[in-house]
Amino acid sequence: MQELEELRKQLGNVATGPTWQQSLELTRKMLRDKQNKKNSGQRLPVFPAWVYERPTLLDFLTGSGTSTDAAVPIGTLPLASQEAAIVEDLLYVLVGVDGRYITAQPLTGRQSRTFLVDPNLDLSIRELVSRILPVAASYSTVTRFIEEKSSFEYGQVNHALAAAMRTLLKEYLILVTQLEQLQRQGLLSLQKLWFYIQPAMRTVDILASLATSVDKGECVGGATLSLLHDRSFSYTGDSQAQELCLYLTTAASVPYFEILEKWIYRGIIDDPYSEFMVEEHELRKEKIQEDYNDKYWELRYTVVQRHIPSFLQKMAGKVLSTGKYLNVVRECGHDVTCPPKEVIYTLKERAYVEQIEKAFGYASKVLLGFLMEEKELVAHLRSIKRYFLMDQGDFFVHFMDLTEEELKKPVDDITPTRLEALLELALRMSTANTDPFKDDLKIDLMPHDLITQLLRVLAIETKQEKAMVHADPTELTLSGLEAFSFDYVVKWPLSLIINRKALTRYQMLFRHMFYCKHVERQLCSVWISNKTAKQHSLHSAKWFAGAFTLRQRMLNFVQNVQYYMMLEVVEPTWHVLEKSLRSASTIDDVLGHHASFLDGCLKDCMLTNPELLRVFSKLMSVCVMFTNCMQRFTQSMKLDSELGRLTLEHGTMQGPPTEAERAEERTRKELARKCLAEHVDAPQLASSFEATINKFDKNFSAHLLDLLARLSVYSTSDCEHGMASVISRLDFNGFYTERLERLSAERSQKVAPSVPGPRGPPAPAPRVAVPAQ
DSSP labels for 358-381? Predict the structure, then answer.
């Protein structure tokens, strides 16, 4: 007996050798660490160490239970006695205990159990034994699987599968017990044992096959259900095998469907073992106002492909969206629950589709109604449009009048609190005072100019993101006008729609329009200054007409571009957005429509094409430099108005002026006008000024022609029909078209190589029409 116990101990040590033991322990540790990391607040329980030191306690490691006497050599026994002894041994082996003449071979890994049969056994008996032993091998595989997968780390689906298999093994053990009763009564022969065990053989074989497949695939959660579902389909035609697989799949799917029901009916994930198809990531919703992307909405909950059951693969997207919608409403403090209906496994996938579709429709309706009605999403978007897309005309007139001097300063010299106060004053003085969300509007002085911001935003979704984020800020000193922008305070859950990425695009559109409005105001200021110049008799300064003409062309350009952006881009696109929002059925539709609106505005406003943007910025720069030049030149012409101001002050402080004082005043004004006229008519000044105006005219015309040529190319090659509207506005009388044709002809003549041809009469020179200017 002592020698037998030592032998069995050695066999147990071999069966649980270091390699296999370490592999299992490593797998358990990885699963345990992952689950504990996810459930940081509550660590998962662990079995005591002796469970892992002595695994598979029911699989050929316990005492045999046979007689303590030494086994009689079976070859010396008569055939009937051999059969009786082998039947007794088989009954032991079928329940995982070594017999006298049949013993289990040690395992070296996840292999199937093999047995060693006494070689002296009769051949006819050995043949029947070899047919029955696969049942014992399958039982051994299933037993080891059940004990291993019952560990906490393998998840609830594997726990449920192991429990279902254990239930079936109980039926199997009852059968073995009944056979043992027959054997004790002397009514069980080897042939009868083979006959009675055959129905159970098929069942145990299928269980072993499933256990082996789950083990090899290291399946957990949805992966286990996918394997069971696919196996159920593979047994189509074998009703008993398919019924068995359906029973196992139904049992294993219960905990998974409980997680699914909580997710699609309440928006809650209760998945301590990380086996559900939707995975939650710890992200703060407050950070959504700072991120330049949809990270919170896209990454807070994600689909784990390997955990999607194959029968739910087509509905994975809707499962994810359904829970996300309910989760958003729940995080806002509203307890929302979809009318629950139990999800039960079936081979008919249509049943899942109907239930998930119903839950999805309910969740979409709840969240969309919550955002549209309670949180007033459309009203907030209208408020943003009012300020960022310059829809509130009187507000901007007041605001730009109040902040004009402040915004001319370098950005480092500007006091943000002063700008905030001026913004508040402009809001209260205009019709924007009726806007209930006006207090959400804030001032933002950006650290970079519009072009840099544009490239940053456009690079968010490209490989250039890191390079743009880590790029050094511009070394140029920004003025307040170049750095100025609005910002808007958006609270959860509206920040899902109006996130930082969307606000940055609004800011880009605003800065573009705001700068255009500033250039228009500067050109109008030049127009006012020119009105003063017309009071003087500048006989020799006929070149003033060229400056006035150029100013008007610039003003026409800026105003038409503004009109195009506001009335032909923003307004139609906004009406499409409002109509789409009214017909939207899900929050993802809302996100898509809003993104399309912003992308369309950016594209049609020429902000997504670097070439167009570069040419347009050069045109704006030429206009600003021209206005600065004209304002410096006409500064001396303000002498008349300065004299008028001094006269007014004199009359105010000392009483009404006398007749003598008035005569003296008129004399001084006449002298001032005469001096001014002589100063302006000076040949040197006239020549210098005329050359400067001609240079501005040349640069402006060149850049404008370049812009029109590029717009023409994009409107035809890229089917950007909106660009044709800009061309028709800027070139309403065909003036620039003729110049473009002339330049094109000149370039073609310069580029065309001189190819010698056959001698003959010379060809007539091409005639190019030059329009009067």
Answer: HHHHHHHHHHHHIIIIIS-HHHHH
Euclidean distance between CA atoms 572 and 257, whole angstroms:
47
Q: Is the dihedral of CA 257, 258, 260, 264 positive or negative?
A: positive
Residues 680 and 536 sit within 8 Å (Cβ to Cβ):
yes
- What is the C-alpha to C-alpha distance for residues 491 and 498, in angstroms, rounded to an integer? 9
Is residue 515 within 8 Å of 481, Cβ to Cβ? yes
Cα–Cα distances (Å) from 261 to 257, 266, 353, in that order, read 6, 8, 14
CA distance linking residue 50 with residue 154, whole number of Å: 18
Rounded to whole angstroms, the Cα distance separating 187 from 183 reads 6
How is residue 654 written in tokens? 């000392």
| Ramachandran area for residue 468 (φ above 0: left; ψ -120 to 50: alpha; else beta) | alpha
The tens digit of pLDDT for each residue in 628-673 reads: 888 777 765 555 445 444 444 444 445 566 666 666 666 666 655 5
Report pLDDT digits (tens) over 264-282: 998 888 888 888 999 888 7
Sign of CA dihedral 434, 435, 437, 442: negative
- Sequence-separated (6 or more) residues with CB below 8 Å from residue 633: 689
Of 230, 257, 234, nearest in space to 157 by CA: 257
Continuous segment of H or E residues that includes residue 286: none
CA of residue 6 relative to chain centroid, distance: 63
The alpha carbon of residue 387 and the mean position of all alpha carbons in its chain are separated, in whole angstroms, by 27
Q: How many residues does the chain have?
A: 773
Tell me the pLDDT tens digit for each residue of 590-632.
989 999 999 999 988 888 887 888 888 888 888 888 888 887 7
Total-model pTM: 0.71
SS3 sequence of 723-766: HHHHHHHHCCCCHHHHHHHHHHHHHHHHHCCCCCCCCCCCCCCC
pLDDT per residue over 337-352, tens digit each? Answer: 777 788 888 888 888 8
The pair of three-digit structure tokens given for residue 318, joined into one six-digit string: 């809707």
DSSP string of 297-363?
HHHSEEE-GGGS-GGGGGGHHHHHHHHHHHHHHHHTT-------------S-HHHHHHHHHHHHHHH
Instruction: Specify the pairing of strand 115-117 against strand 102-104.
Output: antiparallel
Rounded to whole angstroms, the Cα distance separating 49 from 1 reads 28
Which of 139, 167, 147 has the alpha carbon at shortest distance from 28? 147
- Enumerate domains of the chain plus CATH numbers: 2-218 (no CATH), 251-374 (no CATH), 380-634+682-739 (1.20.120.1900)
What count of Cα atoms within 13 Å lies in the side-chain half-sphere of residue 361? Answer: 7
List all residues 6 or more positions away from 641 whose beta carbon is below 8 Å from its beta carbon: 532
Q: Give the whole-angstrom CA distance, residue 73 versus residue 70.
A: 9
Residue of higher predicted confidence among 311 and 297: 311
Q: What contacts 705, CB < 8 A, 6 or more positions away?
A: 736, 739, 740, 743
- Say if CB 343 and CB 352 are below 8 A apart: yes
